[in-house]
Amino acid sequence: MRRPHLLSARLLVFLALALVAACGDSTDPDDGPAASRDIGEMTRDEVEAGLDALTVPGSLAPLGTGGAGCASASSTTDTDGDGTPDDATFTFTAPPCRFTGIRGATLDVVGQLRIQDPVPDVAGFGYEADIAALRFTLTGDDQDDPSYSVTRNGSRSLSGNTAGLQAVTNLQVVRTFTGQPDGAIDEQWTTAFTPETPLQINQPLPSGTLDISGTLGWTRGLESLDLIVTTPSPLHYDSDCTDTPQRIDDGELHAQGTFDGVPGYVRVRWTECGRDPEIGFVSLAG
């Protein structure tokens, strides 16, 4: 009489393990392909920088630091008064472009950002930007806090109206990693921002969603990956989330490709204002 119960117990254990295996396609990036976590953290940084770039003041006050004005401007001419200079080059030096308490680190910003108004005599939301050796260096306050740098070169263009914005990014990024060679990233993606309330010129960005699509080319040592970037769940920006780089409180981004011969994607999932997103690897192998 006891053997059937033993078999049933074994069967239940087997079915439970099978269910876990079927649902366990997402892994800690440390258990996935070697580059998973680093790609996830790099992508997080680029999303944050892209959010800043949706406005001129945001571009000049990176990572929600509120540091607009730290960079010196070659010109202050703004013919149409829309907050976008006709043609100005902003030079960042640290200090004064030094900020504390950024993800447990001190942030230094150096480099140049040229911003031009594509239609200088008609007020609007657009700009053209050239980025030259713009470097963010984070130095951890102690050994457990992050220390790394991100250097960006390339261009961005922003267009839109009161109903939404579109930013087209073409960047070459170099990011350092502790104990690893530098990563070289070719970032070609477009961010579409849909506000929850109509946009207004010279007003802060309201809450809304970001849809990001495009590609990332990743090279580091012998690693070479071509990744497709999508946001199957649009990223939600909370305008009430301030004084933190993590101003996105919901949404999911995928960077999909073939990792060490395994098809899959790095998943970056935001869940809360002020909290770093969760990073995982999802295998698409059969």
How does this model look, in words?
By secondary structure, the protein is of the alpha+beta class. It has one domain (31-283). Helix content is 15%, strand content 49%. The protein contains 3 helices and 14 strands. Strands 1, 2, 3, 4, 5, 6, 7, 8, 9, 10, 11, 12, 13 and 14 form a 14-stranded antiparallel beta sheet that branches. The longest helix is centred in the N-terminal third of the chain and has 22 residues, at 2-23.
Sheet bearing the most strands, described? 14 strands, antiparallel
- The beta-strand count equals 14
The end-to-end span amounts to: 40 Å
Summed up, the domain count is 1
N-to-C order of helices and strands? HEHHEEEEEEEEEEEEE
Instruction: Please tell me what the overall shape is.
Output: globular
Backbone CA Rg: 22 Å
Topology of helices and strands:
Elements: H1 2-23, E1 26-27, H2 36-52, H3 56-60, E2 72-73, E3 87-92, E4 98-102, E5 105-116, E6 127-140, E7 148-161, E8 164-177, E9 180-195, E10 208-220, E11 223-237, E12 248-259, E13 262-270, E14 278-283
Antiparallel strand pairs: 1-14, 2-3, 3-5, 4-5, 5-6, 6-7, 7-8, 8-9, 9-10, 10-11, 11-12, 12-13, 13-14
Give the gist of this structure.
The protein has 286 residues and is of the alpha+beta class.
Features:
about 290 residues, alpha+beta, 14-stranded antiparallel beta sheet, 3 helices, 14 strands, disordered N terminus
